[in-house]
Predict the structure.
Amino acid sequence: MKTISLKIDDSIYGETENIVKSIKKPRNRYINDALDYYNKMQSRIILQKKLHFESKLVSESSLEVLREFEQIDTLHESI
């Protein structure tokens, strides 16, 4: 485990202390669990943005291919 120094707003610290006392969980474990949860949420957001970007790229490419097929169909119909 790594040791870090952390400055926490007084209001957040007070709320955290109240919660860890009521759920009977060590502060260190509570903060580790909170960071783990937050990291997972941020990872999902990053993945969502990446997938959205890549989906747009594929969509544009798919539309281009569709247009080309339509041109081929039109060409064949006129023959």
